[in-house]
Amino acid sequence: MTRIDHALLSYPAGAERLKAVVLDWAGTTVDFGSVAPARTMQHLFSSRGIELCEQESRRHMGLPKKEHIRGILSLPRIREAWAQKYGSAPADADVDQMYAAFIPLQFACLMDYSAVIPGVAEAVAGLKARGLKIGSTTGYTREMLDMLLDSAAREGYVPDCSLTPGEVGEGRPHPFMMFECAKRLGVYPMAAIAKVGDTPADIREGLNAGSWSIGVAGTGNAIGLTQAEYDSLLQTEKEERLVRARRELAEAGAHYVIDSVAQLGPVLDEIDARLHATGNSNALDRLLFTPGPLTTSASVKSAMQHDAGSRDREFIQTVRSIRTRLLAIGGASAGESGYECVLMQGSGTFAIESVISSAIPRDGNLLVLVNGAYGRRIAQMARIHGIATETLEAAENETISPAAVANRLSASQDITHVAVVHCETTTGILNPIEGIGAAIHRAGAVCIVDAMSSFGAIPIHLESAHIDFLISSANKCIEGVPGFGFVLARHSCLMKAKGNARTLSLDLHAQWAGLESDGQFRFTPPTHALLAFRQALDELEAEGGPCGRMARYQRNHQTLMRGAARLDLEAYLRPEDQSCIITTFRYPSDPGFEFTRFYEALSDRGFIIYPGKLTTEPCFRIGTIGRLNPDDIASLLEAMRSVLEEMGAGMHQIA
Ligand SMILES: Cc1ncc(COP(=O)(O)O)c(C=O)c1O
Questions:
Q1: In the chain, at which end, N or C, are there fewer CB atoms within 10 A of the end residue's CB?
Q2: Residue nearest (by alpha carbon) to ligand 1 atom 10
Q3: Nearest-angstrom CA–CA distance, 580 and 623
Q4: What's the confidence (pLDDT) of residue 479?
Q5: Is 452 in the pocket of ligand 1 (CB under 6 A)?
Q6: Cα(403)–Cα(405) distance, integer angstroms
Q7: Is the distance from the beta carbon of residue 421 to the nearest atom of ligand 1 less than 6 Å?
Q8: Which domains does the chain possess?
């Protein structure tokens, strides 16, 4: 099987699994090499004094036969030969006459080339046994097809329905035979159907129908040999011809190319797996086991398929409702005695930087609590803005202790602001922000929480955790797409940020004031990301809010930890400090393990994991957030097992 990666970048989605396969006839299920139509075309043109080479007779294969004839007559060499012979270029009337002559010629040899291709009857029986319905389409007329149907049935191949171009008005590459098949088989959506055929016209028929398109290279038109001729080819020549044939079908847009229908089973398994894995998430794409961007649902992605005007009333209303709903997720009331929500273009770091560079006055002092790379990043950005900054550091596998924060604040009375990362995604450790917030509150400082990778999945109550600024982004646990971050800010603290900003575009107060005055962003908003985010919020709500989402992420995490134990993978953190967001594993000690190979092999199988970020040890990370469920984690674990085995890094078993 050849997987055509560029074709698979976007593929039919919206079905849970395949329900039907539509097979072409000549070259796919009967008539190895699609010899009957090619010979008939050669015979027909020869009767008009024009000899066709093999390629000329086959170039338009798959089209309705009249179109096939018209196609040959439109080839420059044939037009010229025709004009020389008959005094003028071929006209429509010539096409009609040629077609009338073609029909008896085709009938005369059809049965000589009607044998069912070896393996087809067995493969189709297998497809039926897995619950698939079998449709068929062709470029032949009904009378011709009826002859083939009879003889194929005698050899054990009986599709559930068959369509010819004349019955639907237009043949390939139009999709109407496919639509009629879907209707007669009672199957929908079209993404639940796979079209299988040996010509570019077949491939386009499938694509135009919105179905999966699978090319058959070996038994079909592109090689164009009878089985005996094909079998007698030298292996090298066979390979060369196969490569060319596969390329032709791939270039026509096939999602997969096989050599014969007998090889269909594994392709259908893979399509089913893709539909299953992305039942909620269509752009396939590989599954992302990362801290973000994350795998998102199909509905979130499709919510972006609109061009919203940034000043449009409906869009402004969307922005307003997003701001309100985010406050609700933080359990915060809006207004002067409560909190405000400010949306900020850019990735999460931009939103953090807008807080750091706006909330801290020129004479302020910032303490950053650091037990990973994201804490260090906050300290770095503060220093770039010339803010007096100190850090309180803990080891990367230790949580920040509220008592240590309290001690530091009582020793350093000039600290005005404290920043902490809730889930330090560097490792997946969860810092106790409630206790830390209480210590900061008692010391009278302002509490800034980077809740980038936790907000939306780990319930946070802003007021009771004494949080003054909380920052997160669209593409983390709310499962939107990248494009903006957001800040939930205590109103009184936000007001004090007025005039503090060190930059124009990241001025948090000005951004808020803009949104408040006319509902608009000061500068171009990420309109598509906001539309997707509105849908993501609906889906968070439908899942039961942060508690419901956390329950799924916990199931994901538990599945991961059980499987990792069987693979002898050692988690970096103690279980009690570990979040359900992302987990760090030490490299296996087996000498055969090599991370780049491990990563690439998993990526080839459709799974993206994440490199480590520890300062001290080589490690990798696996995220369990985004539109993933325990089945996806189980699939990843199985892939990890097989890759580790391939690398000779232990014989591991997933029970
Ligand atoms: C805790 C934390 N803070 C900050 C960031 C930076 O976010 P972004 O990459 O969206 O700028 C991340 C990203 O994963 C994160 O996990």
A1: C
A2: 348
A3: 8
A4: 97
A5: yes
A6: 5
A7: yes
A8: 2-32+113-277 (3.40.50.1000), 313-541 (3.40.640.10), 545-646 (3.90.1150.10)
